[in-house]
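Journal club prep — side note

Before the paper discussion, L.F. wants everyone to see what a predicted structure for a comparable chain looks like in token form. Sequence:
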Amino acid sequence: MADAPSAASNKAVTSVYNDVKEYYGKTLKKTSDLKSNACVPSAKPVPAYVRKVIAEIHPDVVAKYYGCGLVVPECLEGCRVLDLGCGSGWDCYMLSQLVGEKGHVTGIDMTEDQLEVARKYIDYHVQRFGYKKPNVNFVQGYIEALAEAGLVEKSYDIIISNCVVNLSPDKTSVLREAYRVLKDGGELYFSDVYSDARIPEDLKANKVLWGECLSGALWWEDLIRLAEEVGFCKPRLVTASIITVGNKELEKLLGDYKFVSATYRLFKLPKGSEKKSCLVMYNGEITGAEESFEFDAQYTFKVDTEMEVDGVVASILNNSRFSEEFTFQLQGLNTSGSGGCWAKPKAVSVNPFELFQQLGSASVTPSTGGCCGDQQSCCK
């Protein structure tokens, strides 16, 4: 059994770790054991290429899937991916097909019972996918202490997390460690539960509310602040879906607090990278996005159509794995004139609760984002 991270050795933090291990290792046997609707179905159909890879995952792995989103970032071929809080390995085995034999997926989790399921089916999936050797491995450890688990600085192209950060007693350390192990230009693409205000300590102490991914939820404004303090550029909101708890006893305890399931993209840009607005043109070569690429709630790039992007997005696209997918007019825009015939980004709220109200979940949930896919309920 892995020891709790040294930076988080106080009794309260250790108690949270033990409670979460108990809840997800012993209390929950399958998704139907969850006591709330903290996870909601995707507002859009799951793309065919994603449905195909999901169908290849062993039923025992699927049965212990507790995620709150369908976390499928684009351009995965050949990438090194890390899954924070991998649980039974559902996301890892899905993504292992998308990165291909030359890519690799590492899953890390602190719960022995979940990892036992994940590791049990490594050989099964190698044969199922037609690979010569595994491109997946699973590490026991804490997402707040990736260094202690042996994960090396600047070693991953992409980090995903599916309804796990809310379960951590130290969100700042999670983000800091994610930033450390990402390569320059790398991305943390994750789905989680957020609240409309800071949750008080008495609710945080409720084991069921915490285990159901509710009382440990970050206030969405705190996510923005913490991410930028760690070094990420401002989080890009991808999806937003309002959560209904669906349990009268838990609703009474929670009172007026509201929750949303949201997917964000956080990028680690190289130090000193230029941030200048420009025009970009999408080439249409991303799998599953041949006609248009929904980068986030604000930016949808249509193939062979020039679009104006702000300086931060221009830097993200130019310094990340997406650089080969776009043509850049890097000299910037002349904004003194009457504008141009290029496409403009949507004017959307950065507040996920307002975004849901403003656009409706169906119009803001990209085909590779959103929650749960074909699962009835989930929360890892």
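L.F.'s comment for the group: The two ends are 19 Å apart (CA to CA). Keep this in mind when we get to the figures.
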